[in-house]
Structure formats: structure tokens, C-alpha cells
Model the fold of this input.
Amino acid sequence: MENLSHKTNQAEQDEKKISFGDATVHELKTLLTAIIVSAELLAEEFQSDQKSLAARLTQNIIRNARSLDEKLAHFSEMAELLAGDFSFQPEPLEVEPVIRGVTAQLYPITRSKKQSLTVELPASLPPVKAQRQYLEQILLNLLTNASKFTPEGGRITVRASKEDNSLVIEVTDNGIGIPADKHKLIFQPYYQVNGGKGSGLGLAITKFLVELHGGKIWLKSAPGQGSSFFFSLPLMNHT
Ligand code: ADP
Done:
């Protein structure tokens, strides 16, 4: 009896901790969004003189605020996954609208780095068995990295094709690339090839979510030759 009431208290405390964490992250992200939007508006004021000190400091604010925003999102996602506090309800899903939605979301970031962001899809693609919100998260993480690790003016392309019983989605960039001996390590939590401003959690979360669907994630990359990340998702008709 004592044990049971202890467990109940513990569960209640855990729940309080989780909802306190969620509320805090939500509060911080709301304030951060206001900072980012204000700084972006301010940056527009300096369009004509982008080399001025004020323009460069504003870009600094935007860059750091976006980086903090990404870290917050990753920390809370990782905390949820580690706590087992998520539900998985895959359903038939058309990937094209999801890809178009996520690329549109990323567009302000690629535009600010003068990068092209292209989607190349065949005329039709079979539906996959997946949870929309997780596919969005996977794509957002891979595209954010593609933009982050590609210099100004670079190219990012998203492709998808049917292969046997799965759909393979590819995010390719012509950025800095990754040495072969780091290809496995980058999927470990907190690992970053050259340190950096990110959380080091994005690819660990991405891999977890791909594998949750029964898919695989892999990459082709070499320093100076860009990176291509691929992941597979099961087709609806083959599960
Ligand atoms: P973060 O991006 O927050 O550092 P990730 O887990 O998403 O963490 O990525 C881990 C590391 O893998 C990055 O720090 C970077 O060194 C490397 N990486 C990931 N994506 C790319 C990419 N598209 N091009 C070059 N390096 C990358």
C-alpha cells in the first residue's frame, strides 16, 4: 500500500516535471520568436547598408536567437523521447505535401543565406506508413543541417523515390561535407564534428524517429564534396 502511494506520488511528480518543462520551453520559444521576428524586421531596415555595424550586429542577434531556438526544441524533444513520453500512430501518408510544407517553412532561412532549395519528385509516389508530425521533424532536422553546413549561395535538394518496399527520401547539399570516419559518430547524441552552435542532438533524434517507423538512415559525404542524407520509410501497402 505504502509502495503504491509512493509510486502514485512519483508518477504525479514526474508528470508535473514534464508539464513544467513543456510550459517553460513553450514560454521561452514564444519570447524567442518575438526576438527573431523583431530582429528580422530590423535587418530589413539595413538592407541598403549590409556592411554597417548595426546590420552585422542584427545578423548576429538573428543567428544566435535561431540557434537557441533550435537547441530548445531539440532538448525538449530528446527529453520526451528519453522519458518515453510520446505516442506513435502511423497512418497512410502522402509525402509530397509534407515535403512541400517543410521546405516552405525553411525558406526564410535558406533565403537569408542565398541558398537554393529545390524539390525534385517523380510524378507520383506511393503513400508511406508514417506519422506526419515525425516525418516533418525528420525533414526539418535534415534540412536545417543542410542549410547550416552549406555556405552562402549553396544548393540544397530534396528528392524521393520508390525502392522495393520503401520510399527513400534524400536531402542533398553541396556544403562542407563530413569525413568518412565520422559518419557513424554524428548519429550519437551531442556529437559534433567541429564543435558548433547546435545541440548535437538533431541527428540522434532523427535516427530514433526513422527507426521508430521501421526505416533506416544513412549518408554519402566527403569533406568539400557536400552531403547526401537518405532515409527510408515503409510503404503503406507492404506492412
Ligand atoms: P547539430 O547540427 O546540432 O550540431 P546534429 O546531431 O544535427 O547536431 O549533427 C551532428 C553533427 O553532424 C553536426 O554538428 C555536424 O558536424 C555534422 N553534420 C550534420 N549534418 C551535416 C551536413 N549536412 N553537412 C555537414 N555536416 C553535417
Observations:
- The radius of gyration is 20 Å.
- The helical segments are 2-45, 53-82, 95-112, 132-148, 202-212.
